[in-house]
Amino acid sequence: HLPLDWARDHLTERMCLVGGCNALTLASSRAAIFQEVHHAIEVLGPTRRFILHPLDAIFPDTPWEGMETLLQAWKELG
Fold first, then answer.
1. What share of the chain is helix, strand, coil (3-state, %, to 5)?
2. What's the CA gap between 18 and 55, in Å, rounded?
3. Buried b (16+ CB within 10 A) or exposed e, 17-49
């Protein structure tokens, strides 16, 4: 797990970053998901080299409601 500002400052000139949201967050509250998506968009969005995605993976036990909330947050905040 890398801090997003470090990743922005050291990696985005050479590559596109995928992540920004911890898969465990998708099993938590709506507010936590919105907060994490907001932070990712705020820090990495201006680079225009960022794909919002659960950081590690979408696991079989990941609540689908968490994915729907991630997409809703992206639409509202992005």
1. 60, 15, 30
2. 7
3. bebbbbbebbeeeeebbbebbbebbebbbeeee
Segment 12-30, tens digit of pLDDT: 999 999 999 998 999 999 9
pTM here? Answer: 0.90
| Nearest residue to 51 via CA among 23, 27, 25, 15 | 15
67, two tokens: 């994915």
Q: Residue 18 pairs with which residues in a beta bridge?
A: 51
Query: Amino acid identity of 48?
Result: R
Structure tokens at 76: 């509202």
